[in-house]
Write a structure and sequence with these properties.
The structure is a single chain. This protein is α/β, with parallel strands linked by helices and 382 residues long. Helix content is 39%, strand content 20%. It contains 14 helices and 14 strands. The strands form three sheets. Strands 5-6-7-8-9-10-11 form a seven-stranded parallel beta sheet. Strands 3-2-1-14 form a four-stranded antiparallel beta sheet. Strands 4-13-12 form a three-stranded antiparallel beta sheet, with no helix packed on it. Strand 6, helix 6 and strand 7 form a beta-alpha-beta unit. It is globular and about 60 Å long. 53% of the residues are buried.
């Protein structure tokens, strides 16, 4: 039996290429928690847990992710069968409530290790890839219309992105709609324009906002209302032609079932970390498919490592009507992978190789790690 010998974590702080303006925060650095699982046969698996804007987005922070892994998950998993990933998932679900991002990071490393040992890509463990590349959106989040227009036109010109998601919700609804309209007018039919409100609007604001966005040519609005307002989200979904997408409302398959039953969305933004790991994300996808909803590959702005893991899962999904937004590595000033994820022709390519298909660049991880050389690890048992 290949046992789990050791679980190590490290926190990386990597600057972003520009300020990333959300309704609740402006990000200038992304922080990722990396997990390395070492197995008794000498193999290793790597995973990532990343949130957005510290604690401004959700209940987990980088520090809480690391603490949950080191203090509670690592001691429980050390010495267990490394190939029994489902068993590990069930055990941690019993012992640790919530903490979905921390769970996703450890689970990703376990799947990566298993894929490497059996010498198949992670996608094969989830039924097999049906895509070798996926459409990928870019988020325009400078907050300035002219800056965003110039950025969008450059992305179209170099054939990197022709799907744009605008982060709005910080200004008045009128100003936000005017901002979106200017950008849509500038890109015309050459690109799809969507928006993400990150729960910032009231129902009354959303009624006016969706009407204006629809008239401006925007195709989709993501989570305009707080996650708990499912009836209000259902009103918006049924009242407008523009697609309404659930994001913050989806924290695993239980939420997905309730959102689908309430008809509170037209589209699911499925995030591996927010779902609680690759397996739970696959269950959210299945619920969305069964309900006839559109699917979209969402991001927590992961580095190349978490992005590669998500790509392996979404490569197995037959129909992604709304594409993906797996652009996280492009928002960072540096890439921590020895074999960076490839972006071209408006798509992101599925990594090749066993497991996640990603290898860390040790010089980069050492440079960006928060403790700068001190070893942080969680070890329990023999």
């Amino acid at each position: 039996m290949t046992k789990i010998d050791q679980i190590e974590t490290m926190i990386l702080d990597i600057p972003t290429i520009r300020g990333h303006v959300l309704s609740m925060a402006t990000m200038r650095t992304q922080t990722a928690v990396l997990v390395k699982v070492k197995f008794s046969d000498g193999s290793e698996g790597i995973g990532e847990g990343t949130t957005i804007g510290g604690l401004s987005y959700g209940a987990e922070s980088p520090e809480s992710i690391q603490s949950a892994i080191e203090t509670y998950m690592a001691p429980a998993l050390t010495g267990r069968d490394g190939n029994d990933v489902n068993g590990a998932i069930q055990l941690i679900d019993r012992l640790v409530k919530g903490n979905r991002i921390a769970k996703a990071a450890v689970e990703g490393a376990l799947w990566d290790g298993l894929g490497k040992r059996v010498n198949v890509p992670l996608s094969q463990l989830f039924g097999g890839a049906v895509h070798d590349k996926l459409p990928v959106a870019w988020t325009l989040a400078s907050g300035n219309s002219e800056t965003d227009i110039a950025e969008a036109l450059e992305m179209i010109e170099i054939r990197r992105h022709n799907i744009f998601k605008l982060k709005i919700g910080k200004r008045s609804v009128r100003d936000d709609v005017a901002h979106v309209a200017r950008i849509k007018q500038a890109v015309g039919d050459a690109a799809s324009v969507r928006v993400d409100i990150n729960t910032a609007w009231s129902l009354q604001e959303a009624r006016w906002g969706l009407k204006g966005l629809q008239e401006a040519g925007c195709e989709l609005v993501e989570q305009p209302l707080p996650a708990r307002y499912r009836k209000a989200m259902a009103e918006l979904a049924s009242g407008y032609e523009i697609a309404v997408m659930a994001d913050e409302a989806l924290n695993g398959p239980e939420d997905a079932l309730e959102v689908a039953a309430a008809k509170a969305a037209d589209v699911f933004a499925v995030k591996v970390a927010q779902s609680g790991g690759l397996k739970r994300a696959s269950e959210v996808i299945a619920i969305g498919q069964a309900a006839g909803l559109g699917l979209y590959g969402g991001t927590m702005l992961e580095t190349g490592l978490g992005t590669a893991a998500a790509l392996q899962l979404f490569a197995t999904v037959e129909t992604l009507r709304w594409g993906t937004e797996f652009f996280g590595p492009l928002l960072l000033t540096d890439d921590i992978l020895a074999n960076p994820v490839v972006y071209r022709d408006f798509c992101v390519e599925i990594p090749r190789g066993p497991g996640i298909g990603a290898t860390l660049d040790p010089d980069k991880t050492d440079f960006y790690r928060r403790d700068r050389g001190r070893t942080m690890k969680a070890v329990a048992g023999k």
